[in-house]
UniProtKB/TrEMBL annotation:
InterPro entries given in the database record: PQQ_b-propeller_rpt, PQQ_rpt_dom, Quinoprotein_ADH-like_sf, WD40/YVTN_repeat-like_dom_sf
Coiled coil spans: none
Pfam families the record matches: PQQ_2
Native source species: Paenibacillus sambharensis
Protein name per UniProt: Pyrrolo-quinoline quinone repeat domain-containing protein
Amino acid sequence: MNEHSSVASDKKNRSKRLWARTLLAGAAAGILLVQASVTMMTGTARAEQADISVRHNYPGPTHSSPVVKPVWTAQVDNYKNHEMQYGPVPQAAAADGRVFAFSGGKLAAWDASSGKRMWTYGKDLVPMVTYGKGTVYGFTVDHKLYAVNAKTGKQKWVSKESTWIDTRVRTEAIIPAEDTIYVIKGSMTFAFDATSGKLRWKANEPMADDNGTEYLAEVDGVVLRTFMVQGALTSVQLDAFDKKTGKKLWGHFGQGEGIKVENGIVYSVHYRYMQDEEDKPEHSVVINAFNLKTGDKKGERVYSWKLEGEPPYSYSWGQILLEGDDLYVEQDDKIAVYDFGSYKEGSKPVRTFTKPNDDKLQLLGIAQQRLMYRDFETGELTGVKTVNGQKIDLRAEGMPVQIDIYGKALFRGQQNGILHGMDLMSGQSLFQVRTGASEYAPTLKTDGIIIIQTPGKLTAVKLPKALR
């Protein structure tokens, strides 16, 4: 190879290498350009992402029941506007085919079937109403008790004495009895003549410091009430008053309401200090028997059981309910049923069944042979058959706000704007109403009609035959 050929060859090779480097550089630039383009496109098109995203479905079953329309609705005073001042007192009532509520500060009555307004009464009334034997009771603006004929709206009487007390009222109720209308204002009790409205007497439990409960029972000339009394220890107290004069006959600290009054004897659960029971497995419930007139103790009934395991032992008994002669006692993880009518010392339960395994459940009462438990966190109800302990699921697809049971019918107002009418026996929804509301007051019922209470509105729905 000559020099010229060698030089030419070197030039050619350098040219190829230069071309290759140029091609690679261009390619690299192109790749960078494409990557930058993709980055820019992603940055401008991508939606903002949440730092944390969690989905939760409410655990209740979805019911495919038919949606029913109201037969009528009515605008009323919003009960929420008054609850801060008066608390959750009844601001509406329904009975004998009539519905009673407040509109513009007046008491008004509607026909439950048609929604026709029948009458109005008063002005600037306290938004609280109670029905009893054809009469509607409430308070004037200065807290004087009034009585109105439920059919005509005509005033029967207004008491001369005010029930106002200058203290924070924790409990307030109007309780019609046979010939007396009782008014509870905290630890005060007022007794009015049902015919004339005359104040017969008023009585106070000074040790309660205005902490009275809604429990009031009138039996054989004696009025029983319970109070929360504070001292070195705090507990419930059972008092007895003479029906005619209001004189306090007796009182027993640590005693609950009368679960039964029979043959001049009142039976009351003894709520004692339980710290001593932490060291021993033997636990018991004591029900004392007192003479109704004198308060003298006539005996006691002790229901005992033994816990398993080692100390310290937990406080093992909860609610106690009496249904007929069946005494239900929550004992640790089970429910024991005793025959209250044939008590003998050392009595054993006639049957037991497993208690729902949830510390958040509170026993409310008995409906249709079912123990009704409420979850105090979610508001859900769970039914437990008293015959065999079988659980009944009463949930639905929305969180409950208000639940009311009438016989075999359960009405469940939910936060999602739906109210279910359910069969308590099966737990199935038979109908639903689109209320559009997230809050409810108690559902009322009269003559096959339910009245749904939502803020500022009454909604009337005709019940199917299965739930009447």
